[in-house]
Specification:
Blueprint lengths: L17 E9 L6 H11 L15 H4 L4 E8 L2 E9 L8 H8 L11 E8 L2 H5 L7 H8 L7 E5 L8 H13 L4 E3 L12 H19 L4 E3 L7 H13 L4 E5 H4 L1 H14 L2 E5 L4 H4 L5 E2 L1 H11 L3 E3 L12 H11 L17 E2 L10 E2 L7 E4 L8 H8 L4 E3 L2 H4 L5 H16 L4 H5 L3 H10 L6
Parallel strand pairs: 4-10, 5-6, 5-15, 6-7, 8-9, 9-11, 11-14, 14-15
Antiparallel strand pairs: 1-3, 1-4, 2-3, 12-13
Helix pairs in contact: 6-7, 6-16, 8-10, 12-13, 16-18
Bound molecules: 2-carboxyarabinitol-1,5-diphosphate and magnesium ion (MG).
Length: 451
């Protein structure tokens, strides 16, 4: 019969048609290793605790069963690789795929902790998802930003301002030189700032600023709602009002919302900005949960155009340099640092990284996703972020603009002057000689990270 340990096959050679998952497993002291590790493959594919389930011996069931084919001990943990025949899954159904590989397994007593580190997708499974509509190069084209970061600011305070106050901040950051205004993750359609009124008023101001500056400006409008019908209504309204983007809190809304919104945005021709609020509940603990790298891969397959990935250790939120650069390399082209020749869009093969236990991936011709770096940034740390993540990113600064002593316009101009200084190879100190706004920001926050 098939006990948990029967799902361990160390001589198995994975096929191209196997989806591969790398897990970190903390085995309870009282559990034999192969039983604990076999349980991960069993409970995430076809098995259960009862070894005498007759159907487990059927050949066609075994054909879609997972197999542990590699086990490596590292300190107190085991790093394992599990192969899942792709026909185990329903093609095009991300919710089912995750219900298998990232479902009950996290709660099993057979493991003390379990972390899903990376997924290597099969060609056929990847092709069953939409991928980004615009992706990095479509977004950069919109703003004529082929050799610079896209620059954006989220209005602060996060929520509570009136629609007029919020939209006036939009005017200031657009006039101050940024490409995008952004709603905060928890601003949707509250009474004090109703959705439709905000969209209408902000886009009217955006049109005025475009005329004055001659520059393309846009707005990341948060359509997140727990009722998809309402979300659809809001996305259609954004289109009607001439917006180019919708923003979605992908984790609190869920993968079905992401996939459905992606399909809708194909019809509407709207780009999707993916905010990842709530991810820290399961990505932060290196011993247990689901990695941000895996979240980023799922987001790319479902087709968001830009995704928050962190600040690589510079800002206020967790997410160290190695981890964030690894994520960037999986959703975007490898970082193009300051001064490097522009890299053309190409299918992107990411090599495995044994140190991080990531599996590598050939992304075929699925468009790259524009990485968004945000969280505790200010003009003084722009060089650090661009040095770590390159220029093919979207740079978001909220408090570091609206906390500027001379207000949001000055804060936005300080950010733009800092970015331009980096692209011109000029130090911020030198640039500040010609920019009172940047000088004031440096006097207040210096060039070090916030806590
Ligand atoms: C940043 C932010 C973003 C975080 C999200 C905030 O504001 O608006 O939501 O960056 O984190 O609410 O904190 P500040 P991440 O610029 O004022 O910090 O980008 O890591 O997903
Ligand atoms: Mg926010």
């Amino acid at each position: 019969m098939a006990g948990y340990a029967d799902f361990v096959h160390l001589n198995y050679k994975p096929k191209k048609t196997d989806l591969i998952v790398s897990f970190r497993v903390r085995v309870p002291f009282w559990e034999p290793v192969n039983t604990s590790i076999g349980a991960v493959a069993s409970e995430s594919s076809v098995g259960t605790w009862a070894e005498t389930v007759a159907g487990l011996k059927y050949a066609h069931v075994q054909k879609v069963a997972a197999k542990v084919y590699e086990i490596k001990k590292e300190g107190a943990d085991y790093w394992i690789k599990v192969a899942y025949p792709e026909n185990h899954f329903e093609f095009g159904n991300m919710s089912q795929i995750l219900a298998s590989i990232a479902g009950n397994v996290f709660g099993m007593k057979a493991v003390n902790a379990l972390r899903l580190q990376d997924i290597r997708w099969t060609k056929n499974l990847m092709k069953s998802f939409p991928g980004p509509q615009f992706g990095t190069y479509g977004i950069k084209k919109l703003f004529k930003a082929k050799d610079r970061p896209v620059m954006l600011s989220v209005a602060k305070p996060k929520v509570g301002m009136t629609t007029d106050e919020h939209c006036e901040i939009g005017r200031e950051v657009w006039m101050g030189g940024l490409d995008l205004l952004k709603d905060d993750e928890n601003l949707t359609g509250q009474k004090f700032n109703p959705f439709a009124r905000r969209v209408e008023k902000a886009l009217k101001i955006r049109n005025q600023v475009e005329k004055i500056t001659g520059e393309k400006k846009s707005y990341l409008i948060n359509v997140t709602h727990s009722d998809f019908k309402e979300m659809e209504k809001r996305a259609r309204f954004v289109k009607k009002m001439g917006g180019e983007y919708v923003m979605l809190d992908i984790i609190t809304a869920g993968w079905t919302a992401v996939h459905s919104l992606r399909n809708l945005c194909e019809d509407l021709g709207l780009a999707i900005h993916a905010h990842r609020a709530f991810h820290g509940a399961f990505t932060r603990n290196p011993l247990h949960g689901f990695s941000m790298l895996a979240v980023a891969e799922v987001s790319r397959l479902l087709g968001v155009d830009q995704l928050h990935i962190g600040t690589a250790g510079v800002g206020k939120l967790v997410g160290g340099r190695k981890e964030v650069v690894e994520i960037e390399e999986h959703i975007a082209e490898p970082p193009r640092t300051l001064g490097e020749a522009r890299r053309h869009y190409s299918s992107q093969k990411v090599p495995p990284n044994p140190k991080l236990h990531t599996l590598g991936q050939d992304w075929l011709n699925i468009k790259p996703v524009l990485p968004v770096s945000s969280g505790g940034l200010h003009p003084g740390v722009v060089p650090d972020v661009l040095e770590r993540l390159g220029v093919d990113i979207a740079l978001q600064i909220g408090g570091g603009i609206h906390g500027h002593p001379h207000g949001s316009y000055a804060g936005a101009k300080a950010m733009r002057d800092a970015v331009e200084a980096c692209l011109d190879g000029v130090s911020l100190e030198d640039a500040a000689r010609h920019s009172l706004e940047l000088k004031t920001a440096l006097n207040l926050w210096g060039t070090s990270s916030v806590r």
